[in-house]
Amino acid sequence: MPTYIILNQWTQQGLQTIKDAPARLDAAKKAAQAMGGEIKAFYLVMGQYDFVVIAEAPNDEAVAKLLLGVGAQGNFRTETLKAFTEDEYRKIVASMP
Known about the structure:
This protein is an alpha+beta fold. The chain contains four helices and four strands. Strands 2-3-1-4 form a four-stranded antiparallel beta sheet. The chain is globular, with a radius of gyration of 15 Å.
């Protein structure tokens, strides 16, 4: 299943309701499971981004739908990276002409 690294920044609205953020994370985990994926890890971080999520989803469309749904609530903005494992990386490189 494809892996995604999702970089997140809280909006002003998200910060004003920060005490609700753990419940929102729980809801996002349930939504990911409902679409056949999984939030594998969550990290609160310091720097340009406020938190990072590592997730798996069946395909790009599923993760886009999930992120559009949770993003529409207005609590954070995302930047999503599709990730490749080391094995996938080695296969890609080995298949190059």
